[in-house]
Amino acid sequence: MQLVVARIGRAHGIRGDVTVEVRTDEPEVRLAPGAVLATDPATVGPLTIATGRVHSGRLLLRFEGVTDRTGAEALRNTLLIAEVDPTEVPEDPEEYYDHQLVDLDVVTVDGTPVGRVTEVAHLPSQDLLVVARPEGGEVLIPFVAEIVPTIDLDAQRAIVDPPPGLLDEGEAV
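Predicted structure:
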């Protein structure tokens, strides 16, 4: 299974370094030197990471064969894609890959059906489960332990304990 793990940003310096927007909880594994990543657009890659370092709070990568600023600028906005075993799970039992959450049935703690997870939206402040309602429309559920106390992958179900108004029609999320 392929997962997007980063997006290449602007060039940094003159030696081929680029900034990256990390999209994985395991950058030390997925974006380590020697990692070979597919790309989108596919015509750019695959790319092999030569070096990586943090500078002013941003991850900088350099790829094999990219030795100057011009080469680095040509990579801007390219998505980096890692091949991941679909049975692999994160080390932390409280973390999940997006593909594990998509298509889970969502029910309240009392068993009332809410809908089905269609995607996980990663926002700067927190992640949201995008849940398609059976009657149409969707609801955005903050993916925090207080609201989503249980993820049962064996039963393919997420149990939610929503605050008042979260699931009501016509109210803001």
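Summary: The domain at 2-83 is CATH 2.40.30.60 (Elongation Factor Tu (Ef-tu); domain 3).
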